[in-house]
Amino acid sequence: MTDKMTVHMARLDELWQAYQAAPAASAFADIVLALHGLGEELTRLHLLRVARICQGIEALALGYMDDQQHPSTPAQMGAFVRQLDTLRAATELFSPRAQDQRLISDQVNWAAPRRIIILGSPGDGHEEFLPLLDTIRQIGFEVEELGEVDTIAPVRRSHIAALLLPPAAAREEALLGWVQKARQLCPYTQLVLRTPSSDMEMQVALLRAGVDVLLQQDEGSEQVVRLLLELTEVHETSTYRVMVVEDSKVASTIIQRTLREQGIESEAVRNPAEVLDRLNSYQPDLVLMDMQMPKLDGIEATRVIRQQRRWRSLPIVYLSGEQHIARQIEALRLGGDQFLGKPFHPIMLAAIIKASIDRYRTAQRHTQIDGLSGLLMHDVALQRLELLMVAAGERPLSIAMLDIDHFKAINDSYGHPMGDRVIMALAWLLRGKLRSSDLIARFGGEEFLLALPGADAATAESVVDHLRERFSAHLHSKEQSLLRASFSAGIAVYRPGMKIEALLERADAALLQAKQQGRNQVVLDVSGDNPC
Questions:
Q1: Which residues, 6+ apart, have CB-to-CB distance to 110 below 8 Å?
Q2: Is residue 393 left, alpha or beta, with left meaning phi > 0 and alpha meaning psi from -120 to 50?
Q3: 377 exposed, middle or buried (CB, 10 Å; 0-12, 13-18, 19+)?
Q4: Which of 32, 370, 378, 463 has the greatest count of CB atoms below 10 A from its CB?
Q5: Structure-derived torsion over alpha carbons of residues 28, 31, 36, 40, reported in degrees to the nearest 10
Q6: End of a domain among 30, 64, 94?
Q7: Residue 229 backbone dihedrals phi, psi, to 5 degrees
């Protein structure tokens, strides 16, 4: 995987050196843009503490630009250098080390380390977390229990999160002091604490003391596992696509150039009457709409867009010199999401566009995820698999169909809550062990679909068998019940020209063979090479 964080930091260092050699407002503006891009990448990697450092430097730089365009005194230069040094040290801590890139490895191509530390004692009023530690180890996390904050030295290793287990009987003042010590020990790590209080002021105080994530009192160990998986799942960035509806050629050219400098793709539409056709052909993530256009203004165009079921939730941001407040309110009431005046600040424009698109994509993603397992659902998985097949070209692509063995008997003998626990455990294992580039879906009740880009038959068989061994060794518990479960799997390899139906049929046939041969095993499809 390309180390985008390192690339961003190297670019920032290069721009800073160029600026020091020849200080100029334009050169400093490039530094601000580089900081903005690095901050976005750190956020994508869930390195939120480091991202905040970067965003703080960006805010400082924007302040210089507002006042006198760039640092103008030795004191300002010195402060900026110190901030950059802190940022550089933090990013170096989280840069990927030399890793075993084999899919079967416990360190499979993750952009951020999967190390979790425990501060405090699980036995001091937190006994319910002991099974949790076994679970997160089982699904691929490296868990390091460091003990009480008063007895350890500052943590120098890179960890994605620290689970805080303070003394259960600690009063509010003592708890806040304990959290502050934990933050000093782990300056760049996300601190996770189950709040001891539902009081708003206390929760604000804990956040001020350094906590990043507050788990509410009614959230148990399952929510902690989900949270840790979310913190460490890194999704590849998708290109931001914006449709610019602007009748002025000069204005649309300036807007498109600004977006391009911020890494945003765009397509210009000068005639708003063409918007519906262009929406269907370009498939944007957001529409940037001018309000004042001849014949058909932006508000009217927006109202028509909102009549189309497919585009009812598509973000629409108005970009206009309109100053009349009533007119702006009308524009928002009739379908717009946000209003940005002209002239615009390029970084503000990019921030609004990216934030709006990210919220839109998150909302869409939530409708595509199975609530129990946290995995993609059947129809969405098929769409993603087709995209992977198109993107594969001549590179290998393997899929696997997994089915939990004797699942009906588990439900009948232990109850559906235990069956749900088994499904969640397998989903957690798959999310914890596979790469962010792999497709993982709950394909049916107890059936799962995997797609492994770049994996040939031998690699896929080794990966899936490794998962099978880990799953069959896991002890599932619910209340007083304990059991072990297993799964059977069938693997098929995509070949150029193969239809998705044929690929799935081959994997399903191999799965059926695994069941007929006794279950708890992996079978590789060895049928003919006819791609049809």
A1: 232, 234, 435, 436
A2: left
A3: middle
A4: 463
A5: 180
A6: 94
A7: -65, -40
Tokens read off for 373 = 């397992």
Name the average pLDDT for the chain. Answer: 85
Give the number of C-alpha atoms closer than 13 A to the C-alpha of residue 263, restricted to the C-beta side. 14
Q: Yes or no: say if 289 and 301 are a contact pair by the CB < 8 Å rule.
A: yes
Residue type, 254: I
Between 335 and 275, the higher pLDDT residue: 275
Half-sphere exposure of residue 124, counting CA atoms within 13 Å on the CB side?
A: 13
What CA–CA distance (Å, rounded) separates 457 from 7? 33
Q: Which amino acid is at 329?
A: I
- Among 511, 494, 491, 514, residue whose Cα is nearest residue 503: 494
228 and 245 part of one domain: no
Is the CB of residue 144 less than 8 Å from the CB of residue 118?
yes
Domain that holds residue 413: 378-524
What is this structure's pTM? 0.73
Do 396 and 518 belong together in one domain? yes
Query: Is 332 contained in some domain?
Result: yes
Strand, coil or helix: 94:
helix
517 & 437 share domain: yes
Q: Is residue 483 part of a domain?
A: yes
Q: What is the CATH number of the domain that holds 267?
A: 3.40.50.2300
On whether both 184 and 156 belong to a single domain, the answer is yes
54 burial (CB, 10 Å; 0-12 / 13-18 / 19+) is buried
Which token pair is 67?
């006042």
Q: Which of 210, 232, 254 is the last residue of a domain?
A: 232
Sign of CA dihedral 287, 288, 290, 291: positive
225 and 246 co-located in one domain: no
Residues 321-341 pLDDT 10s: 766 777 778 777 777 788 887
444 and 382 assigned to the same domain: yes
Distance CA 106, CA 512 (A): 29
Edge-to-edge strands of the sheet including 161-165?
A: 142-147, 115-120, 161-165, 190-194, 213-215
Distant-in-sequence, close-in-space partners of 146: CB < 8 Å, separation ≥ 6: 117, 118, 119, 152, 155
Could you tell me the CA-to-CA distances from 461 to 341, 394, 430, 504 in Å, in that order?
56, 19, 15, 16
How far, in Å, CA of 40 to CA of 12, rounded? 14
Checking if the pLDDT of 397 tops 60, the result is yes
**SS3 assignment, position 187:** coil
Q: What is the pLDDT of residue 96?
A: 57
Number of domains in the chain: 4
pLDDT band at 394 (very low <50, low <70, confident <90, very high): confident
- Residue 408: is it exposed, middle or buried by C-beta count within 10 angstroms (0-12/13-18/19+)? exposed
User: What distance in Å separates the CA atoms of residue 303 and residue 462, rounded to the nearest whole number?
Assistant: 54
CA angle 324, 347, 56 (to 5 degrees): 120
